[in-house]
Design goal:
Blueprint (H helix, E strand, L loop, with lengths): L10 H20 L2 H7 E3 L5 E3 L5 E3 L7 E6 L5 H8 L2 H7 L2 E5 L9 H14 L9 E5 L3 E3 L22 E6 L2 E10 L2 H16 L9 H10 L2 H4 L2 E4 L8 H5 L10 E3 L7 H15 L1 H4 L8 H28 L5 H17 L3 H17 L7 E3 L4 E3 L3
Parallel strand pairs: 4-5, 4-6, 8-10
Antiparallel strand pairs: 1-5, 2-3, 6-9, 7-11, 8-9, 12-13
Keywords: Glycosyltransferase, Transferase
GO molecular function, one term: glycosyltransferase activity
GO cellular component, one term: Golgi membrane
Length: about 375
């Protein structure tokens, strides 16, 4: 198991309360109508309209109400052009877009504070009028293919995924904060508040310069939150523009291209080249969803997630049916939990975990217990 438990007691709990007070006051301030208009702008492409009864009405057949969120301070023409690439996508699918234009605080917490304020704002509305999911996109994220709907990345609303509240990606095992989905739910508020409190509640946490990213990654890995997190394949959101435009590529039609700061000085030229090429060869990137790799890969991903979840339930029921605790079943159950929380983006590992459980189940005999006969109300031994 890769659990890490963070205890918050005594002095640490007191420090957390001290930290949360200004955070909550700031959120309350942001929700005041006079200030919120200064801090964010709504794209004219709202995800929903309002019906005669005041309920949210989707403009399309999307099963989710989604809004993108980003931030951009100061003047940066390339980033403005990158954000503008989302316009057609938003209009086509009915997504809103909110962009923070003024800093809320010094340092690294603007992103998390802004998302937190939007979550509080939405949760204050009746459920039928709320945005359901926010998709965070950094300003350097370019929308390549407007034909790809965002719903394919979100869980269907059934018992398998009703406790899923965060969907992200990793690169070489490290959380990538450039693009992620966060559910409008009290769980998400608790996640962000605790992430911002990490420097106060765990002085040993090594956050480095990218404090917000590392703090969020740190909390996502905690026992309290990990079961509600799903990681998806990195290439779904982070394919390079050059491979996207290549004719005959297996991954033509990619949704996004990214140009993060770790590209250093080269990112400005690469971003400019991408935006220029996108303008010239738009017909080559706007590929119908049905003709892209997303159709098959996303369907298989969610099928695999359901299979892992089902086998996890099998191991738990099997353990209950035994008269003695079985360490092999416990280990198999633990591995499946890790797959759900960490390794769904690693298809081979997930499939191997399922096959191992199937083999284990076939070798274990569950003793038959007395069965109550309903009509007579008597206990009978099965033959």
């Amino acid at each position: 198991m890769r659990h890490r438990a963070m205890s918050i007691t005594g002095v640490r709990r007191h420090r957390l309360l001290i930290l949360l007070l200004p955070v909550l006051l700031l959120v309350a301030f942001l929700l005041q109508s006079d200030s919120i208009n200064i801090l964010k702008i709504w794209s004219p492409r709202c995800a929903t309209t309002t019906g005669s009864n005041g309920d949210a009405v989707s403009r399309n057949s999307s099963p989710h109400r989604i809004s993108k969120v980003s931030m951009l301070f100061g003047k940066n023409d390339l980033y403005e052009r990158a954000l503008e690439t989302h316009r057609e996508h938003n209009e086509m699918h009915g997504y809103g877009m909110k962009v923070l234009r003024e800093q809320l605080t010094d340092g690294y917490w603007n992103k998390l504070l802004y998302i937190l304020s939007l979550l509080v704002e939405e949760l204050a509305k009746p459920p039928t009028r709320r945005i359901e999911w926010f998709m965070w996109v950094d300003a350097h994220v370019v929308l390549l293919n407007p034909q790809i709907p965002l719903d394919i990345f979100l869980p269907v609303q059934d018992n398998n995924f009703r406790e899923t509240h965060f969907i992200g990606t990793r690169n070489d095992g490290d959380f990538v904060p450039s693009v992620f989905f966060i559910h409008v739910h009290p769980w998400s508020i608790k996640l962000l508040v605790k992430a911002m409190a990490v420097p106060m509640i765990d002085e040993l946490a090594e956050l480095g310069s990218a404090m917000d990213r590392r703090a969020l990654s740190y909390i996502l890995d905690e026992t309290e939150f990990r079961d509600s997190v799903i990681y998806q394949p990195w290439h779904w959101f982070h394919e390079s523009f050059s491979s996207n435009a290549k004719e005959g590529s297996d991954r033509r039609g990619t949704l996004l291209a990214q140009f993060p700061s770790n590209l250093k000085a080269a990112r400005w030229k690469q971003l400019a080249d991408c935006l220029d090429r996108l303008h010239r060869i738009e017909e080559n990137t706007a590929i119908p969803f049905e003709d892209t790799f997303y159709l098959e890969e996303t369907e298989r991903f969610w099928e695999l997630a359901r299979d892992v979840n089902f086998m996890l339930l099998v191991t738990k029921q099997l353990q209950k049916g035994l008269t003695e605790w079985n360490e092999d079943i416990a280990a198999a159950s633990s591995r499946l939990e890790d797959v759900l929380s960490y390794d769904l983006d690693q298809k081979q590992q997930a499939m191997e975990a399922i096959e191992d459980v199937k083999k284990l189940v076939s070798t274990i005999q569950v003793p038959q217990r007395p069965v109550k006969e309903v009509d007579k109300g008597e206990w009978i031994e099965p033959p």
